[in-house]
Design a protein that fits this description.
Layout lengths: L1 H29 L8 E7 L4 E4 L7 E5 L1 H4 L2 E6 L4 E6 L3 E9 L5 E10 L2 H13 L5 E6 L2 E6 L4 H7 L1
Parallel strand pairs: 1-7
Antiparallel strand pairs: 2-5, 3-6, 4-5, 6-7, 8-9
Length: about 160
């Protein structure tokens, strides 16, 4: 009699596990699926442009998002190399989207974060120190401070030396 009770308990336990498995599979199928589109996060630095290869998306498309309204970043499209160029304008967060022209469906989304760099302070200090020398350009290129230019006259050479 005890063996029958144990067998019955085991059968009920196994059936309850099996029914619970069916319930979780149905819940997973009925839940809304996330859209299948490229969703990237970009961290940009003021003064540095960044190019991103465009994912394979249907053309023509139009741009959207809040980057332009907040004036945080400017985005331009190059058809020859099939890429987007992100040019940061000021610090902040924004979202840039690409939408199909016919359906209005979002096909690509970029979350953009723009930060100031410590190099900005270095460039400002160098410009204040070397500002009296004509023809010198100081800028940030590839996370480096670059000083270049031409020496227009002999009087500037004395300032450099």
């Amino acid at each position: 009699m005890i063996n029958n009770k144990i067998k019955f308990s085991l059968v009920v336990f196994i059936l309850s596990l099996g029914l619970r498995g069916f319930a979780t599979e149905e819940e997973e199928d009925s839940s809304p699926k996330a859209p299948n589109r490229p969703n990237r996060t970009l961290s940009l630095t003021l003064g540095l442009e960044q190019d991103q290869k465009l994912p394979p998306i249907p053309k023509p498309f139009k741009s959207g998002g809040d980057c332009k309204t907040h004036n945080i970043a400017e985005v331009s499209y190059s058809e020859e190399i099939n890429s987007l160029r992100f040019t940061p304008r000021r610090e902040g967060l924004c979202t840039f989207t690409l939408k199909e022209l016919k359906t209005g469906k979002i096909v690509a989304e970029y979350h953009i974060e723009v930060r100031k760099s410590k190099l900005d302070a270095v460039v400002r200090e160098m410009q204040s120190l070397l500002g009296d020398i004509e023809g010198i350009n100081i800028r940030i290129v590839n996370n480096k401070v670059v000083v270049d230019g031409q020496r227009p006259c002999q009087c500037s050479q004395a300032n450099v030396a």
